[in-house]
## 1
Amino acid sequence: MAKLYFRHSAMASGKTAHLLAVAGNYHYLGKKVLLLKPKIDSRSGEYLVESRLNIQRHADYLLEADTVIPVEWLVDVHCILVDEGQFLSYSVVKQLRDITVRNNIPVIVYGLRTDYQLQLFDGSKALFELADSIEELNKTICNYCFKKKAIVNHRRDQTNQEKIVIGGSEIYASICYSCYLNSV
C-alpha cells in the first residue's frame, strides 16, 4: 500500500537535493515521477525546482491553495514528489493523502516544519496530521555557533512580520535553539 511521506528539516539541509535524487532514481529505472511545487515558491523561477547544489528539474505542475488535482495528472505515475510542502493547504495535503489510497501512488513531500517564530506552517501541520511516515531528514548544524543541531529557520531581519517571506540564505539562517534564544 502506498503512503504519504513527510520529510522535513531546517533550511539548507539538502531537502531539495534529496528530492531531486529520488526523482533521478525513478527516472533511471524508467518510472514516471510527477514533480509538484507550490506556486508561491518562485525563488528559482516559476516551474523550476533547484537545490543549493545547483541541481535542477522542471516541475510538472504548480499548486495553489485551491488546486484540485485532476486524475489526468496521475496517468502512469509511479511516484509523486512535492517540494516546499510547508506552503501547501490542508485541502491539497488531503488530496495527496487520498491519492495514496485511491490510486496506490506513493507521495513524498519535502518541507520545513516551522516558520521563523517556531510555529507550524499550515502545510506542515496538515502533513503532521495526515502523513503515514514523518522523518527528519539531513540534520544540519547551527549557522551561528557551528556546534548544535539547527532546528530554527531564523529570519535575519525581523522587521517584516509577515508569516511567509520567500527567500534563501540571504534572508534566513538555520540555527540551534540556544542561538535563537540569544537572538530574540
Note: The chain has a mean pLDDT of 92.
## 2
Amino acid sequence: MTNLQPAPNLPKSPPSPDFWMPKSASVTSEHVDWIWDFMVWMSVVSAIMILGAMIYFCFKYQAKSRSANEYAEKSTDHNTTLEIVWSVIPLFVVIALFVWGFQGFVELRTPPANSFEIRATGQKWKWLFEYPNGYTDDTLHVPVDRPVRIVINSTDVLHSLFIPNFRVKMDAVPGRYTDLWFKATEPGDYPIFCTEYCGTSHSDMLSRVIVHPAGGYEAWMDKASNTDAVPLVELGKMMADKKGCLVCHTTDGTPKIGPSWKGLFGKTESTSAGSIPVDENYLRESITDPQAKVVNGFPPSMPVTTFRKDRELDAVIAYIKSLK
C-alpha cells in the first residue's frame, strides 16, 4: 500500500513462540490464549484417553470364535453410575469454561475510559482509518502501551476487522457502529485481515497496524498530516490508493467495477443523465455525489468519498487528468 509518509523502520511481526497462535502483542491476548491452551490440551488428553480405551476394549473383548461371540449369559447395556460420572464431571468443566470465558469477554468488550479513539471504515475492498485530527490513512498507526478503541463501520456490505496478534476481531456493519479495543505491548508491524466474505476481492482486503515506540506516534502524525508540500499529481495518486479508488478503477484502460481512469479526462461519457463531457466539474461531482450521473454499463456501487482538505480532492482530479 502507498502512504503519504513511509512507515517507520519497525520489525515485522516476529515468529510466535506458540505452535498454533501468532505472537501475542497486546494485553487483550491474555484473555484468549490461556483458555485456548486449556481447551486444546484438555481435548488432547481426552482424545488420548478415549482412543486408549477403544484400543484396550478392542483387544479385551475381541471374538475368538463364533461360539465365543454368542451371549452365554445375561448381559447389560446400561450403567447408571458411569453415565452420572461422565455427565457430571464435564458439567463442572463446562461451567468453569463459561465463567472464565465470560470474564474475558467482559474485559474485551469494556475499553478503558482513557482510550485513544480511531475510526475504521470498511469498503469493498479496503480499510480506511481516520485519526482524531481528521487525517486518514489506509494503515493503522497506534502508540505502544496506550489503550486504543477502534470505532468501526462499513459503507457497503459486511466486513470484519481482525488483528491476529492482538486477538481482536469485530464485524463492520453497514448503517451502524461497532467497536473493539486493545493495548499494544510491542512496537512492530502486524497484519490486518477482513474475515467476513465481502465479494470477489475479499482476500485482497489487507492492511497492517504499525505500533510506534514511545514518542514515535506523535512524530509520525506531525509528518503524515502535512500534505501541503507534496506535488498535486503525486498527492492525487496517493489519495486515490488510500481512499480505495484504485480497487474499482484502473489506470491502464481496463474497465473494472468502474470505468478506467486512463484517457478519461476530455472524453464524453454516456451516463444515466445523458452524454456528459468529462471535465473537472464532472469529476468533482462524480467523487462527491457518485450516484448523480452513473456511467452506463456500470453498477451504481461507488460510495461517497470525503476528503479532509479541498486540496486532496483537487489532487485526485489532477491525477486523473494526468492519465493520458
Note: Helices lie at 33-60, 80-108, 216-224, 232-242, 245-248, 280-288, 310-322.
